[in-house]
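F.,

This is the one I mentioned.
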């Protein structure tokens, strides 16, 4: 059927883009012939509109045409038509006899008519695709003109000395950030999302008053170290790029309140990030390849929102409990990597939402009942044993109550053992004093718990709830 589609070059090209598994690409000659008339076929938006114009019946049409076999020779069809006309004009034949005589030649004519019918469908579709292409190209060129005018308008404003606080150059297909942008000393907000930028120039550091910077949805593989000189930056969005690391200098952006680095290829965060970003309230690092959090993350004392789902997180630092203002924590979908959470998570006294779904967690900390403000809890798709799956599905309140009762039971058993030891040692004043002190410490939450996952020697092999005191009990 490839030979027949040579008559419909645009259709042939679009069909291959539509379904390359079932439609071979057009010949080189056809592609070369298409180029002068359809120079924008490589544009993804235009091709999307073209493929959407392909009817679902196209496969059936092509299948029928392929099953018909070779098209009858035109001269044979013409001869058959003449013969049929002659037979029908013969008075010596009855209608029944004439019909029987013409049947010999009617097959070729009918086959030709079937071919004409299906090829008309293909011809109409070829014309339709041409019209769609023309409409989309017009729209594209108009859009580019408008985008170029936006860039020109901003640059003219800069040249004229106009005070410009906000610049929106999103979706302009920029491959380079115009140098003049970095000279707008009064700029407070810069939006360059949805372009094709491969890098941000070091000169970005000249924007001393910049508070909001959105460079999401580009092709960035790194950020300049000079970004650390943006001391007034409050909101930074670098999501949906190709970043593998963030510069250590980002810790100098001490005014940052929101940082979105999601949808990248990050494998680690800067070691000192927490020491500098103590005003950060929202950290979005989902859909990366992070394995661990740096220990300094516990210094982000203002952090309220942390989303790290869809990474390769193996564990949390035991110092995580210092994030007293944290309200939302999402660690879901780290799959086979996240097997435990440290006891310190129960020190997050303001936590309202916790998502630990789609991991390999078997037990949550015994002191989980201490999360009194927790409203939303998701433990779905874990091999849970403590609490049971049934309890976990009942929500935060049910889990908290279950863990409180479990804690009371543990404390009761601990006090019993202390009593037994005191009796065994006779005058057990020392034992009773030691035991009472230990239980008091456990109840008040001042346990010397050991977390895991922040690095070597961080207790990675310790099971949930097995604190130093727990072992002594």
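My design for it:
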């Amino acid at each position: 059927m490839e030979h027949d589609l040579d008559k419909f070059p645009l259709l042939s090209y679009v069909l291959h883009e539509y379904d390359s598994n079932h439609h071979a690409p057009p010949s080189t000659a056809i592609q070369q012939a298409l180029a002068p008339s359809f120079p924008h076929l490589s544009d993804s938006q235009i091709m999307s509109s073209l493929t959407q114009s392909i009817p679902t019946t196209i496969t059936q049409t092509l299948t029928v045409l392929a099953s018909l076999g070779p098209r009858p020779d035109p001269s044979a069809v013409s001869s058959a038509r003449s013969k049929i006309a002659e037979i029908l004009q013969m008075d010596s034949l009855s209608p029944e006899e004439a019909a029987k005589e013409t049947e010999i030649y009617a097959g070729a004519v009918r086959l030709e008519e079937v071919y004409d019918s299906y090829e008309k469908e293909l011809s109409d579709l070829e014309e339709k695709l041409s019209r769609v292409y023309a409409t989309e190209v017009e729209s594209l060129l108009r859009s580019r003109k408008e985008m170029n005018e936006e860039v020109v308008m901003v640059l003219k404003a800069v040249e004229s000395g106009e005070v410009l606080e906000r610049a929106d150059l999103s979706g302009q297909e920029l491959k380079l950030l115009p140098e003049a942008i970095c000279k707008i000393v009064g700029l407070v907000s810069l939006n360059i999302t949805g372009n094709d930028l491969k890098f941000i120039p070091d000169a970005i550091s000249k924007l001393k008053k910049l508070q909001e910077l959105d460079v999401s949805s580009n092709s960035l593989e790194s950020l300049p170290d000079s970004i650390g000189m943006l001391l007034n930056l409050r909101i930074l969005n670098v999501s949906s790029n190709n970043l593998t690391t963030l510069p250590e200098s980002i810790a100098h952006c001490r005014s940052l309140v929101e940082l979105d680095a999601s949808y990248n290829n990050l494998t680690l965060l800067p070691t000192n990030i927490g020491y500098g970003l103590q005003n950060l309230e929202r950290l979005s690092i989902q859909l990366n390849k992070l394995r661990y959090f740096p220990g300094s993350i516990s210094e982000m004392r203002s952090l309220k929102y942390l989303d790290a789902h869809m990474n390769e997180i193996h564990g949390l630092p035991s110092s995580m409990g210092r994030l007293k203002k944290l309200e939302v924590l999402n660690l879901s979908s780290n799959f086979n990597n996240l097997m435990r959470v440290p006891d310190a998570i129960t020190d997050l006294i303001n936590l309202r939402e916790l998502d630990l779904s789609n991991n390999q967690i078997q037990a949550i900390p015994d002191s989980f009942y201490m999360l009194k403000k927790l409203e939303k809890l998701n433990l779905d798709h874990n091999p849970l044993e403590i609490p049971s799956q049934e309890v976990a599905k009942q929500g935060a309140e049910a889990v908290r109550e279950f863990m409180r009762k479990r804690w009371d039971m543990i404390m009761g058993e601990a006090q019993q053992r202390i009593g037994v030891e005191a009796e065994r040692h006779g005058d057990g004043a020392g034992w009773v004093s030691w035991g009472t002190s230990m239980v008091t410490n456990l109840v008040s939450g001042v346990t010397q718990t050991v977390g895991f996952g922040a690095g070597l020697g961080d207790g990675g092999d310790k099971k949930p709830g097995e604190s130093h005191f727990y072992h002594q009990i």
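The longest strand covers residues 166-168.

Talk soon.
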